[in-house]
Amino acid sequence: MGKEKPLLMLVNPAAGRSTSHAALGSAVGTFCDAGYAPTVYFTTAPGAAVEMTERLAPGYERMVCLGGDGTLSDTIAGLMRLPAGRRPHLGYIPMGTANDVASTLGLPMRQPGRAVEKILEGDGMPYDVGEMAGVGYFTYIAAFGAFTEVSYKTDQELKKTLGHLAYVIEGINSLGSIKSYHARVEHDDGVLEGDFIYGAVSNSLSVGGMVKMKKDLVDLSDGKFEVLLVHNPVNPGDLNSIVGGLLYQDYDNSPCLTVVQSETVRITFDQEVPWTRDGENGGSHRTLELRCHPRAVEIFC
């Protein structure tokens, strides 16, 4: 007694169709068996984990968040408000719907006991964090265009009932509203300009559970984003090339797909364009700058 290692746990009680309460007992028990003394806090509203992390995390060397990608995103945003030397190492127990980050990190999804085992067995991995200027930090994606409104407009009750299928249903409903945006995209190695139906600035192998990036392309701690641009298709052949290119990760041979890597990105539109930030509303912008903070946090995986 008295030698237990302190551990901060933030829990989103609404995550994973409200199964987080059941998962908590398994997670806490496994940590206790490993010699930790968890102190548990529940988030009370979307975004609450940002303030809670900033306020509570400096007193710990390790912390864990239990929830979905949004909970992880808020937790990391809170860590980014702290000086680099005062950010505890972070563990993630994924209990959400899409779990893109968990898929990228190779963490067991909706299996809290196994996820805790991975945290205890794993090493801390440096992880890049993105920032949308004037908006906030993002963990794995900032995007505009087709389907970007799906994640934050999908009904919460529908998510709890249907899980990932809820996103698919909402995506189908949005097909008729897809439009293109004229944009100038400035990146480290040049400038791209054209009409795009979708653009993503990401640090992830999985985006929305549907778009997969090449494993040999994505390095989570290289200080660079992967920038995916989908050009406006003008005929059925272009549409087929988009679907095939995304499905088989064959970006080079699809004339409507462009992928570049860059530490900073500046995108200018000729109108206000809505964005999503880690699956949540990222506001509407005519000009937006995005910056990668290399190796900003340590995640156990």
Summary?
With 301 residues, the chain is of the alpha+beta class.
What would you say this structure looks like, in words?
The protein has 301 residues and is α+β, with helices and mostly antiparallel strands. The protein folds into 2 domains: 5-122, Probable inorganic polyphosphate/atp-NAD kinase, domain 1 (Rossmann fold, 3-Layer(aba) Sandwich); 136-294, Tumour Suppressor Smad4. It contains 10 helices and 15 strands. It has helices at residues 15-18, 20-33, 48-56, 69-80, 100-105, 112-121, 150-153, 156-162, 165-173, 236-248, and strands spanning 5-11, 36-42, 62-67, 89-94, 124-132, 136-138, 141-145, 181-187, 190-202, 206-207, 211-212, 225-231, 257-262, 264-277, 280-300. Strands 5, 6, 7, 8, 9, 12, 13, 14 and 15 form a 9-stranded antiparallel sheet that branches. The protein has a 4-stranded parallel sheet with strand order 2-1-3-4, sandwiched between helices. Strand 5 and strand 6 (136-138) form a beta hairpin. Helix 2 packs parallel to helix 6 (112-121) and helix 3 packs across helix 4. The protein is elongated and about 65 Å long. The two termini are 28 Å apart.
